[in-house]
Amino acid sequence: MARPAKLACKFGFGVACAVALLGSLHAFQKPFRQYHGTEYFEFEVPADYAEKTEWVFARLMFPGGGPGIDGYYPRFQGNWREGSSLWTQDYPRADRHFSQALRRLTRIHVRSVEQPVDLEDGDEVYNWPWVYAVQVGEWGLTPAEAKVLRDYLLRGGFFMADDLHGAFEWDVFEQSMQLVFPDRQIVDLADQDAYFHVVYDLDDRYQIPGSDHLRVGYKIPIHARSGTDGKGDHWRAILDDHGRIMVAISQNSDLGDSWEWADDPRYPEKFSALGIRIGVNDVVYAMTH
Fold it and tell me: How confident is the model over 107-123, as a mean pLDDT?
């Protein structure tokens, strides 16, 4: 879990250094805590929740109310540090289902429970090499948080941004990322990019709808604010100076729901299958590039 710190070990000291560094990171990580969310208020905690592992699903906490969103989802504009914000969408069900899938499909040692991470909580984010955020077209990322996120990413961290739909939410997200990287563009990922081939070959991709929008059909507008520009999947990124992905962006798809409802027969398996494979590629890419 040392990747964000950009620390290196050489020669015969590599293994010993890695073990020592992993131990020091564990020592500074915040303990696990569960929050009430927008969908779930009580959730069973597994017996092994405190296990020390090499990877943890780190969910980014954030305040609600991005630019131009006054009154949108007003009941989720409370104390975001206690879960009253859209950062808890799909939480913790999606996090734990995906963590379980990653355990089964790879040899990565994965913790069974997630870790909510606050960018304003000192150096906490630097303990987690991969962070995920949902509803990023409706967040209220502050300049101070953007500065921390920028530093985290430039040190080698990785951010997966999910569940933003249509032009309105894209504009909100793009404005936020301009706070983080005013000097970097968001680009479309090419089919041949390693991101789509690091574990699974994902040339055949498609839009992954949220569970609430299946009733209207995933080939027509699937989001209340997206209109016709909510059609079609887009996989985008922000790259570092060496062409490595720092921010992976899922637009017009809802990977969180594909994980959250992976065990529900009412949610089509084809969407969960692709969503989990994209997530696996995302994590392995983040840990190897």
Answer: 96
